[in-house]
């Protein structure tokens, strides 16, 4: 695992890319990051830092996508090009990339780590198909092979798995979507890796604020989303 | 660079605890210090207070554990910890090998729990324990001991019998009479008080989706800068009631906070929630404090403390 650090980065670009959705490019001294990892940004108007999945990392530029949800993201959206931001990165584990035909499923802003993963798989020449879903046309974010608008991203999943002869599923999105992904992957007996989300305090694995229950070696244990995760195997997660 | 001018000695009637700086990482915000790897440099820490340790391993609470509020946060971790046996076997050697000074923070549901933990701490020659009698997040015990002066006195006395090194009691602010608790702590034979633990709080968030309301709530311990005035008040009360060293904890995040707490009688400080915002905060504060002392020609922290206390 790479060493995490507290960095100061410079915003190279910030733009609105969909309804209530922004993309931010940050020039950073961070050396390496993998798909699935996240950064934790200091927002001076909130008590806690805010975690964001890395949507791309290339030439020292970190890209994040975020939806305007509250004080933290409103602050970020108020920033301008050349402003400095303070963040800790790279955080968490990452997708364990297998040389298998991959189906990538992103729901809403959950597309962010999927875009990074898709690019990583493309570079390794691993066959992949990214399907994403958005509530409405104006919330749509580009970059997928297939986009579902209005309906649910999981509705057609089983057909796609059969058509594409999927061998592994990677996914990020709200809990109901991830739960469904985990069920489908069990049904078809293919592995799934899902990016979990929970409110975090420290974001580095110390405070135990963001734990979920997982099954490991036939034992139920607490795992922190920020350090042991955010990526878990679908079958190991114990759903509430 | 050394920070010799920060050397702090907490002195009770019979015992002393030497700290290389008065800045201590508060319990629950540093784990057992093995999670950090080389991310956090603890060279300038006086100590870290470990995650609260119970006799048995605890999983903590299910569901949401964190709720952010204006100026702070509410947590209901519920004392998730590895248990004393695993701590001694797995965590203690790491702390020792890294030469990190620590306070062993202990918590129990019964008097026997505390006795067992005190005995083990003594057997393993642990230099200082901080007794959590004030966790608002577990259903039984703990807080109950901490809120009644008589039961607190009994508990402290029993721990004292079994533990001969530096004994710190962490007091709860969820009381109408902190002075009585402080007196019970001193009469029971403790060496030092740390205060305050988190305040009871309830965080509520109500969303409206155009049709229905959705309510989310977390009940637990409130921490962060919003509790600082309560901590200042409580520490002044404690100082007026007893003569023993006090470790201030509650909303500390900057140099001026340290001065404020020194002015009400604090001898050392614990930093909690601020670690989540700025992981280097303990080191930053130690360096800032040391530089302030140097630049303003004070001899050391002791002289600074005296000067601030003299200020009316």
Sum up the structure in keywords.
heterodimer, A: 240 residues, alpha/beta, Elongation Factor Tu (Ef-tu), domain 3, Rossmann fold, Dihydroorotate dehydrogenase B (pyrk subunit), domain 3, 3 domains, 6-stranded mixed β-sheet, 4 helices, 15 strands, B: 312 residues, TIM Barrel, 8-stranded parallel β-barrel, 4-stranded antiparallel β-sheet, 14 strands, 23% strand
Describe the largest sheet of chain B: 8 strands, parallel, barrel
Number of helices of chain B: 10
* Shape descriptor of chain A: globular
Give the structural class of chain B. alpha/beta
Which H/E pattern describes the elements of chain A?
EEEEEEHEEHEEHEHEEEE
User: How would you write the strand order of the largest sheet of chain B?
Assistant: 3-4-7-8-9-10-13-14
| Gyration radius over CA of chain B | 19 Å
Q: Quickly count the domains of chain A.
A: 3
Low-confidence segments of chain A, given as residue ranges, are: none
Name the strands of the widest sheet of chain A in spatial order: 4-3-7-1-2-6-5
N/C terminus separation of chain B: 34 Å
Percent in strands of chain B: 15-25%
What is the CATH superfamily classification of chain B?
Aldolase class I
- Contiguous runs where pLDDT drops below 50 for at least 5 residues of chain B: none
* Percent of residues in helices of chain A: 10-25%
If you average the pLDDT of chain A, what whole number results? 95
CATH class of chain B: Alpha Beta
In the CATH hierarchy, what is the class of the largest domain in chain A? Alpha Beta
Question: Into how many domains do the coordinates of chain B divide?
Answer: 1
Q: Would you mind describing this structure in some detail?
A:
The complex is a heterodimer of chains A (about 240) and B (about 300). Chain A has helices at about 70-75, 110-125, 155-165, 175-185, and strands at about 5-20, 20-25, 40, 50-55, 55-60, 60-65, 85-90, 100-105, 130-135, 145-150, 170, 190-195, 210-215, 220-225, 230-235. By secondary structure, chain A is an alpha/beta fold. Chain A has 3 domains: about 5-90, Elongation Factor Tu (Ef-tu), domain 3 (Beta Barrel); about 95-195, Rossmann fold; about 200-230, Ribbon (Dihydroorotate dehydrogenase B (pyrk subunit), domain 3), CATH 2.10.240. In chain A, the strands form 3 sheets. Chain A has a 7-stranded antiparallel β-sheet with strand order 4-3-7-1-2-6-5. In chain A, strand 13 and strand 14 (about 220-225) form a beta hairpin. The mean pLDDT of chain A is about 95. Chain B has one domain (about 5-60, about 80-200, about 225-310): Aldolase class I (TIM Barrel, Alpha-Beta Barrel), CATH 3.20.20. Chain B has 10 helices and 14 strands. Chain B has helices at about 85-95, 110-125, 145, 150-160, 180-185, 230-240, 255-265, 275, 280-295, 300-310; strands at about 10, 15-20, 25, 45-50, 65-70, 70-75, 100-105, 130, 165-170, 190-195, 200-210, 215-225, 245-250, 270. An 8-stranded parallel barrel of chain B has the order 3-4-7-8-9-10-13-14, surrounded by 5 helices. Chain B has a 4-stranded antiparallel β-sheet with strand order 5-6-12-11, with no helix packed on it. In chain B, strands 1-2 form a two-stranded antiparallel ribbon. In chain B, helix 2 runs parallel beside helix 4 (about 150-160). Classes of the chains: A alpha/beta (about 240), B alpha/beta (about 300). At the A-B interface, loops of A face strand 5, strand 6 and helix 8 of B.
